[in-house]
Write a structure and sequence with these properties.
Number of domains: 1
CATH superfamily: Alanine racemase
Order of helices and strands: HEHEHEHEHEHEHEHEH
Helix content: 25-40%
Structural class: alpha/beta
Bound molecules: pyridoxal-5'-phosphate
Strand content: 15-25%
Shape: globular
Low-confidence stretches: 230-237
CATH class: Alpha Beta
Number of helices: 9
Length: 237
């Protein structure tokens, strides 16, 4: 099932790239495997997936030893400062940095291990009260503040668009995130390269690609529906 789903997602990514006049290689597919067992990730791995997204540090810590070394793990969900230590030397990027305190804590843990962690600033484009992320008008100042931290490297922006049945409704949010990224990039802030745009999920990744996404985070479209216990919550809830 996963292999077939991946083929369909690949087809749609290729079509969206073609519509937008972009190369397929400009868009990285991140398979969002939260709540899914390691066997399912292995099936995706065998079908060629190397980038996996998780939103809970514990899940990364638990799955990491069960799966091949060449997987690139992406932390895409809300991150508590006391959990950073579980993932700091396991992930290739943290997509969800939205406070100075969190950035400082990541910088500190990365420093202890002698590494520089690539990060994205999460922006709440639709200004939804239920979501994390900084406000778009605060983004430049926020990036200036965290750019001075020596053990993180800001590589772009991320957003979680509103849940909708109609992907077109999210197009303005994606378009504006790209504009924001270009604007901040033109400020040439030291230690910042605004080249990555992490946007688009199962319901809207094609629109996100048309609007310039360089990373799409697809869960349900690859692994099927998620089933949660009473204590778990979707990042999009
Ligand atoms: C769960 C999640 C996704 C994937 O959502 P789907 O709709 O299943 O594709 C993407 N990004 C974040 C931050 C998530 O929490």
């Amino acid at each position: 099932m996963i292999t077939e789903n991946l083929a369909l997602v690949e087809e749609r990514i290729a079509a969206a790239c073609a519509r937008a006049g972009r190369e397929r290689s400009e868009v990285q597919l991140i398979a969002v495997s939260k709540t899914k067992p390691a066997e399912m990730l292995r099936e995706a791995y065998e079908a060629g997936v190397r980038d996996f997204g998780e939103n809970k540090p514990q899940e990364i810590r638990d799955k990491h030893p069960l799966l091949p070394e060449d997987i690139r793990w992406h932390m895409i969900g809300h991150l508590q400062r006391n959990k950073i230590k579980y993932i700091i030397d396991r992930v290739c990027m943290i997509h969800s940095v939205d406070s100075l305190r969190l950035a400082q804590a990541i910088d500190e843990e990365a420093g202890k291990r002698g590494l520089v962690m690539p990060v994205l600033a999460e922006v709440n484009m639709a200004k939804e009260a239920s979501k994390g992320g900084i406000m778009p008008e605060e983004a430049e100042e926020f990036i200036r503040q965290i750019s001075i931290l020596p053990h993180i490297h800001v590589e772009g922006l991320m957003t979680i668009a509103p849940f909708t049945e109609h992907a077109e409704e999210n197009r303005p949010y994606f378009r504006n995130l790209r504009k924001l990224c270009v604007d901040i990039g033109q400020k040439s802030i030291d230690n910042v390269s605004m080249c990555r745009l992490s946007m688009g999920m199962t319901g809207d990744y094609e629109v996100a690609i048309e609007e310039g996404a360089t990373m799409v985070r697809v869960g349900t479209g690859i692994f099927g529906e998620r089933f949660y216990g009473s204590t778990q919550q979707d990042g999009r809830a």
